[in-house]
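[SOLVED] Need 3D model of a two-part complex

Original post:
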Amino acid sequence: MNPQIEQFIAPQRAAYEMIKNEAFMKRTREAYEKYFAIAEKARSLPELKQLAEKGNLPLRLNSSPVYDSYSLLFETHDPNLQPLCAREESLMSAAEEARSADELRYLVELAVRRSKRELAVEEFHAFLTVMLAGKILSYDIGKANARLSPEQFLAGFIMMREEIITTYTIMVELFGLDWETIIDTPRRMRELLLFENLSSQTSRIACALDPQNIEWMREMLFEEILTEKSTAQLLLRRSRLVFHPSVPAESSDEALRKIARAGWEKIKHFEWADETKMLY
Amino acid sequence: MSNDRDHTDGFYTLMIEHLSEGGCSPHSLAVFERRLREFNESAGDEGSGGRKAEQDLVLETAVAEKLDELYAVARACEDSGDTEMAGFVRESAAAIGESRDHESLGKATSKAAEKIDAFALKREELLKNLTSAIMDYITILCCHGADSERRLAILSLDEKCASIEKQGETIKSLLLHPWFAAHLPLPETELEATAEAIEQMRRWPAIEKGAVSLIREEVKAALDELGESRRELYALHAEDEKRSIRTGFLAVSPEDSPGSYTFTKIWEGFSS
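Solution:
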């Protein structure tokens, strides 16, 4: 190889060494390899520059790492996390559509800025859902306590019921988040059932509460809390469903390990899956 | 050598073509257009001034690249509706265009990057505090007047407002600022009223007197209604405890498009 070319492509060689064994950097690896193949053929630096530009390689060396990185992120996300997946997709599109390094910068910046708003709204919806779920769980504890010792715990139970009424009203009136909207949005299960990711690498597998609790929450909300029933009637009501709590603290390590093991079996087929990233 | 001239000519022509297509590199495009023109005019006679001219070209290209980087960012800000940031980026970029050598270019570039980063960081911190303040505001709205949690939420709200004021802004100034408002799910018509409500809320008492007496009345009414049904309440409690099973579930997301989760029960035991 022409020594001037050898010197010119040294930074690219160093960059290639850093990514060549990364499974997900497929496009980037291909772009570098194509560039090096041209460098082998070129007889002079001006020829290399012209051939590389003709194949759009300088741009591909810029855009491929963007595509590969966001493509990996996209794959590791739970597909229900639509605002997040949409951001990664828009960044992948930016990398594919850009016709110059500056246009790539423009499209990436624009995509990040637009998705930031979507993610901010999403954060509020998640916050409200967590708050509602937390209050319904507190209502259940309050009810149990009030049944055992009404004098001591009735005030807390009554307050929690009123708080849920207010919370739900605000969710519906200010944010358009009624129960149907919530349960028709699969990712809201993450907040309602207190999902806890099992791997630091992905949101595809999680430890969760019993999914029957969703129906129990619906029963509490629409057949108790939001009804005209008096406090005494609520306490004396035999519910169809009961809340199923999570694993008790004394068994949680063992249970989490079992759940994580089962979770790993579900993701191990992904090229990016790394067992050392499992949290339990 | 004449081959190299052809390659150089071809390279400049391709660069012009690609930069024009991208539409985000006006400075670099102008440099390459001039380069191509001068290259063709020189017709192989590089003369004694060749090295100096080459150095000038390298500097000119570097300056153009830096200006285009910021041009692209400013345009993205503009197109996403953030005219304030767009103006700030353009203003910060101005000194780069005046660079006379690589050293001054390096300094001007770093200075512009520092200014832009500091501006963006300040905004991010303000947005973080504003978002938390709005969440506290909602928490307080949802809190019962007699709930002790209300005190904590009011304190937290006041802290967030004070942090915002320390940075020279107010809840109202931020809520009425288009960039901040765009990151909140509040209707435009509610922004001013929300700002005023938050200001009042900061001075709310920890516990609302009327709410406490109301709860007392409700407790009394419930106790009267419950009358002699204590045994029934105990029985219901015991029955629910029996029905309540502690479980640990694995939730697996759908493979490649949104949809229902698959739940598998992995652990089961009774409530203690």
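Edit: The mean pLDDT of chain A is 96.
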